Amino acid sequence: MSQRIPVTELTSGFRDRAEVALADGQLRTNFRTAMDSLMKKRADAFPDEEEREGLRELGNRIKARALSRLPDLLEQLEAKLTDNGVRVHWAETTEQANEIVHGIIQARQGSQVVKGKSMVSEEMEMNDYLAERGVECLESDMGEYIVQLDGEKPSHIIMPAIHKNRHQVARLFHDKLGVEETDDVNELIQIGRRTLRRKFMEADVGVSGVNFAIAETGTLLLVENEGNGRMSTTAPPVHIAVTGIEKVVENLRDVVPLLSLLTRSALGQPITTYVNMISGPRKADELDGPEEVHLVLLDNGRSGAFADAQMRQTLNCIRCGACMNHCPVYTRVGGHTYGEVYPGPIGKIITPHMVGLHEVPDHPSASSLCGACGEVCPVKIPIPELLQRLRQENVKSPAEGPKVKDGGAKYSRKERLIWRFWQTLNTSPGLYRLFLWGATRFRKLTPKNVGPWTENHTAPVPAKRSLHDLAREHLARNGGQ
Amino acid sequence: MSARSNILNKLRSGLAGSIPRPDDFDERLVTEPWQYAPEDRITRLRNLMEAVHTEIHQVSSDNWPEKVAAILAERDLANLVHAPATAHGQQLAEYWQQSGSSVQLLAYDRPVEEWKEELFWEVDASITGTVGAIAATGSLVLWPDRHEPRLMSLLPPLHIALLKASEIEDNLYAMMQRQNWSAGLPTNLLLVSGPSKTADIEQVLAYGAHGPKELVVLILEDA
């Protein structure tokens, strides 16, 4: 570990973006409005606290049980899917996953792909990968479509275009699609519908994510409101589903509570408009549906999180987005500030396993540890606890063997020495008294600039008399009473 | 080493020394809060589905085709795709013949590839059966097959679904158990809880995103 990159250079990314975001009034209004509304919807969807807590506990147990048997369940899922006629592929890295997807498209001589919403495909940067190889890859979820049209990335895992208001979308459609500028949301959606319907009809391949993969029956379950997921998985002759290895659950009945937790936590809906359960390709006598169905199982750092029993809980996540909706940091800085695929609290705990802490050294500390994310998590991931753990891993020295990818990204010998000095000072009475004596007398000499603290606060100055001193005097005055 | 074995080996070494968690699934948590008296099931289903712009009519099981004709006439639609090989498809076709309706009755009787353009752009409405509904969440259960293919309930702007009043279950768990889903699922099992919608722009709800703009449910009471 000879070439440690200076911490200040690394930290500039998140901090700079946060500063820009915080100064953007429009962006802050867009997020504040949306998050307030999503929080209220969730609260309204869980009117009975006892019911909610019972369900969260059950959700947690189902995911913990699935993870405790993960390799077996993945094998069972693969066997069942194969029996059902689905081809299963495994990828350790996003590069491998992209190669697999591209290979399937090439075998069909496909040139047009239409995509349902998939965060795993965002991890893979599949659109760019395929575009570089001459395959058009079009997002069909309205929010994703808007974001892709503007050359952006999603700013929320459920509502990708939540950072934009209707006027911004109207201008975008006008500029890119040549349609008349309209602020009417219904009209904007109908423009999207017409444009994308042709794409659904013409596409060679449909790509989707997976919300739950059921080992018992070999079933891929997808939730959505728009119908674009059903289109992508039904209309084109080939369907490729991409998913993380943590999405498998043991039994069909396990999805009953998870589904309820997911849609209520995410959008405050009792259920989404469509729950789409796919168990195979078109059968010989059937008249529609894809002839080929593929599932790509992606690791991308998940097995690294899995290796540690505490951090394994990260993989409970069912991607509802409730943690970001309730996060005071996310609400203020928005999704793009995180600079990664998964923003907000869940992004802070999952991203380090995917890209390593060197890439996201500020993620674990971009939190006030208020605890809201952990309180609302439908599968009870102790996010604040995991953030603290990542903070520790973030400053471990190479000798201490950090357990996360690129752990120790923020390790600094100088900082470690300062803390060691501080510890000695506070645990040696003689030395401490000497320090107090000096600090109270030379208080005017404390520096005016103490790093980031003084950017927004006045520098701390020791009091004229120490607490020890005052206490001693108080005891002397009231001595013996 | 293949990606598959690398992943599985890593996961297995992560689990070394641990034992699988027991299956302590407590079904009461997903059933008890969601139970209704039989006479309340329809009300619950109606309330939830109507709240998301579904149109619902309670009709008798022998004259529902008349209602279908009226729904199409109200909207001035030119055609309707139906499934001729199903019992309800036959009942509809018979009524159509007797009444001499001007609405063209189409049949989804050939692979999608043979009439994709027409199916995507020119079909106004579809009518399908259901295998039941779920009162707790206001959801129809669709079990597409050779006779009623998957795209029937997705492409036409108007989807009419037939639901037998006696086939409404309290909750998803009860439905799964009664129909024994884990013993065998179709290629594509669907829960449909309203017309297609989106709230992706400013969280403003808009119907008719990619699927049907309208969903009409005819609840068939036993004659």
Automatic annotation (TrEMBL), chain A:
Cite the Gene3D superfamilies for this sequence.
Answer: Alpha-helical ferredoxin, NagB/RpiA/CoA transferase-like
Claim: 4Fe-4S is one of the keywords in the record: yes
Entry annotated with the keyword rRNA-binding: no
Q: Which domain of life is it from?
A: Bacteria
Q: Name one GO biological process term.
A: lactate metabolic process
Instruction: Tell me the ranges covered by the 4Fe-4S ferredoxin-type domain, including all copies.
Output: 307-337
State the Pfam families in the record: Fer4_8 (PF13183), LUD_dom (PF02589), LutB_C (PF11870)
Q: Per its record, what are the GO molecular function terms? A: 4 iron, 4 sulfur cluster binding; metal ion binding
Q: Which UniProt keywords apply?
A: 4Fe-4S, Electron transport, Iron, Iron-sulfur, Metal-binding, Repeat, Transport
Return the NCBIfam families for the record: LutB/LldF family L-lactate oxidation iron-sulfur protein
Give the protein's recorded name.
Answer: L-lactate dehydrogenase complex protein LldF
Question: Source species, please?
Answer: Marinobacter pelagius
TrEMBL record, chain B:
By its UniProt entry, which Gene3D superfamilies does this protein fall under? NagB/RpiA/CoA transferase-like
Q: Name one Pfam family in it.
A: LUD_dom
Q: Where is the LUD domain?
A: 43-220
Which top-rank group of organisms is this from? Answer: Bacteria
PANTHER family on file:
LACTATE UTILIZATION PROTEIN C (PTHR43682:SF1)
Query: What is the protein name stated in its UniProt record?
Result: L-lactate dehydrogenase complex protein LldG
Q: Which organism is it from?
A: Marinobacter pelagius
Q: What is the lineage of its organism?
A: Bacteria, Pseudomonadati, Pseudomonadota, Gammaproteobacteria, Pseudomonadales
